[in-house]
Specification:
Order of helices and strands: HHHH
Distance between the termini: 43 Å
Shape: elongated
Structural class: mainly alpha
Helix content: 25-40%
Radius of gyration: 24 Å
Oligomer: single chain
Length: about 100
């Protein structure tokens, strides 16, 4: 028996699924549109109980890049430059780091 490869639907395809579902089309007709069985469409729609989820968008804080972000101030991106980039004093004492060898 030959198995189909897994399909990762794009945001546009998912939107098309929800549009067709809200118009009242059957699962089998939606599946035919994507050349899939209705059983592969059902999990995408049933995951949210048949209610269309909100569009995903990034947080304003996550959109910061490079030197604009709080942790990206040091050019090397090292942990030692983190307090400086946050404009805080560093720790005076630190616990020793113990590496376990297996």
């Amino acid at each position: 028996m030959k198995y189909r490869t897994r399909t990762f639907y794009t945001d546009e395809q998912k939107s098309e699924m929800w549009d067709r579902s809200q118009r009242g089309e059957s699962m089998s007709s939606i599946g035919r549109h994507f050349n899939r069985a209705s059983s592969s469409i059902f999990p995408h729609l049933a995951q949210f109980g048949g209610i269309r989820p909100h569009d995903r968008k990034r947080s304003r804080n996550a959109a910061l890049t490079g030197s604009d972000s709080p942790c990206g101030g040091s050019p090397s991106g090292s942990v030692l430059g983190l307090p400086r980039s946050l404009k805080r004093p560093g720790e005076r004492r630190s616990a020793p780091v113990i590496f376990a060898t297996v």
